[in-house]
Amino acid sequence: MIVASARVLFVALVLFGLALPNAAVGQGTTPGPPGPQRRELVGYIRDPSGAPIEGARVEIVGESALSNEKGLFRLWTRNIDTVTIMVKRLGFAPIEAQLTARNKQWDSVYVELEPTVQTLGGMIVTTSPTTRERWMSEFEERRSKGLGVFLTRDEIAARNTTRLSDILRDRRGIQVVHLSTGSYGVRFVTHSGGRGLACQPDMWLDGVRARGMELDEIFASTVEALELYDTFATVPLQFTHQANTVPCGTIVVWTRAPGRANRETKKPPA
To answer: Which of 22, 47, 68, 86 is most exposed, with the fewest beta carbons within 10 Å of its own?
Structure first.
């Protein structure tokens, strides 16, 4: 938590007869020459080292102005003998003071703003597992039950391929088919009436169902782990969905943390 100190070590607001050139000062909110019942108030704003402060807001009732690059400002007041002036700038402690006219005229104003001190309050830092750490912990828990086929990052990398279908090609119950798009798809083979039928498995990417996605749309280098379930009975509850048809199989893909994957610049070869 960032806290700006309210303590001002030194702020000076001095009235004196310094003649500031009118053409050099910043403009107020009321343009054009003043009327007969208006008085000019000009001044100079600096920091403790004497450097001018640009962009400080100077306010009186009904009017305000910003100091220019030389720290100068100009305002027009009503025909009164006392006025309250407020000066503030981001990074400096604001000040407020009452000015008194002399002989129906304002003396030039010299303002010194003190920088505010910023301190960082104490904080307690706690750590918690990241989303991917939680994913991998749950992956290992399911893997320990042995209800599906589980491939880790090391096993994926050992095949040295960009296509995930190449990694699954020799798995029992898996068939790799050539798609009309020129790429490859993974199909689960089911047996009905003595015949083997190939059907597209349900795809889940980082815990979210990816309907219609083909496995090779994901680069092998970006994958941390795979889960394969060849029957609906073995699919964990979080990877099921309400539908009129039961999927013939399910593939769950967990991607790697950003920055860890070897990013590809083109699609895997067809």
So the answer is: 22
Distance, CA of 82 to CA of 100 (rounded, Å): 5
- Rounded CA-CA distance 178/85 in Å is 80
pTM: 0.48
Q: Which CATH class is domain 131-255?
A: mainly beta
The structural domains of the chain, with segments of one domain joined by +, span 2-120, 131-255
Superfamily of domain 2-120: Carboxypeptidase-like, regulatory domain (2.60.40.1120)
End-to-end CA distance of the chain: 54
C-alpha span between 24 and 26 (Å, rounded): 7
Half-sphere exposure of 24 (CA within 13 A, CB side): 10
Token pair of 192, please? 């009905």
213 compared with 28, residue with greater pLDDT = 213
CA angle 255, 257, 259 (to 5 degrees): 120
Q: For residue range 64-120, list pLDDT tens digits in order.
A: 899 999 999 999 898 888 999 999 998 898 999 888 888 888 888 889 999 886 665
Q: Which residues contact 33 (CB under 8 A, 6 or more apart)?
A: none
